[in-house]
Design brief:
Helices cover 38% and strands 22% of the residues. With 482 residues, the protein is of the alpha/beta class. The longest helix has 18 residues.
Length: 482
Amino acid sequence: MRRHRNVKVVATLGPASSTYDMICQLFTAGADVFRLNMSHGTHDDIRERHTIIRQVEHDLGRPIGILADLQGPKLRVGVFAQDGGHDLADGAKFRLDLDKAPGDATRVQLPHPEIFAALEPGASLLVNDGKIRLKVLECGKDFADCVVEVGGVISNRKGVNVPDVVLPLAALSEKDRKDLEFVCELGVDWLALSFVQRAEDVLEARGLAKGRAAILSKIEKPAAVKAYEEILAVSDGIMVARGDLGVELPVHSVPPIQKRLVRKARAAAKPVIVATQMLESMIENPMPTRAEVSDVATAIYEGADAVMLSAESAAGRFPIEAVTTMDNVAKSVEADPTYLSIIDASRVVKRETVADGIVAAAREIAEATDIKAITCFSQSGQTVGLVARERPHVPVIALTPLVSTARRLALTWGVHCVIVPEQERFKGAVLSAIRAARSAGFAEEKDQIVVTAGVPFNVPGSTNILRVAPCDERLISRVDPG
């Protein structure tokens, strides 16, 4: 019988992982979804990687999800007259302004008038991933006079974070809009939206995507944490982007925030990725640190749908080893009896619809008897998400005639996707489910599975039938002749 891994692995592609052979090896090693980072590479680079992924998908016969991660607006200081910039001492005064003249030890351009419009005295400005911290003493529409609270070297075009205020900036820059249209036309399955501060940011991206890709909101700003309920409600999925969260918030506050975000996304039956620096040392080393392994394990114990590799697989020296490590950690955690007890204890009881009741019953039947898998026929993937929210102890097999649905579900916890023809009769659906479970190695002829479906078929959101079916097709024929 096949050993099943529930949590999914997202691997970012880049210079270290752009060939057919490498992408094929990454998928075979355990990657379920590939991330295309729109902050790096040209449209030609992205198109080539997309084409290779689809070729691997065709050759291996398994749906593969593709996630395009939009860059978002980048806030940066200007340039300095002196190469290498200047060393800002603690307690020194420093001005940010709109003047295009090269900076010096006392000032530099910040070419973002919208930041000055939102600043107030007392606000913090973080430069170079928080290595330099400035506090605003006085500000106006074109300047901010600051005191250096934490000094360091400030140099050309270093990034700026503004954690204390909601900036009057759209999450989509002009570059993002062009990138969004490009990848939607290309045919990606998920769009990751950076710099989300409010629900309106997500709705804007959704309007531009026009249903061509699902929208995944990256939670990386304090404003997004505060508005999380509203953002989650209009998103198809969530990414806990801990890198920027750890810059703009006290680093010790990130773990409890991560737990809350994961739990609420699961309650909403929407996939959630935990990302950033999960196996950072594997960029240069073939083995991770013990702390990194514990970090990955913690996300899995929390019930995250997926864990993500960034530079480890995109630019690191050991991309295959990084994916293999993720795979091994996930299998080890999921084999731990403590994992099942934690997942069960964190289950959210939500019974509002017929589909809610059916998927809950499917899980309970599977756990009370010797059921090998829960199979779901789905057009939109919504019912499959409800089954995954239950976190059953058996594999979830999603059966759909739509390749786009199968690819999007590659991100969802516990789901094995199979493309099947459209169904017209329930008996045919049961036979398809049996064959899929046996072909995928999850069941044998002597076993039983649970089948959920909606009649009439091919109508999204119509799940209304649950059946326990034997995997011996001869028994199906006897019970359901014709």
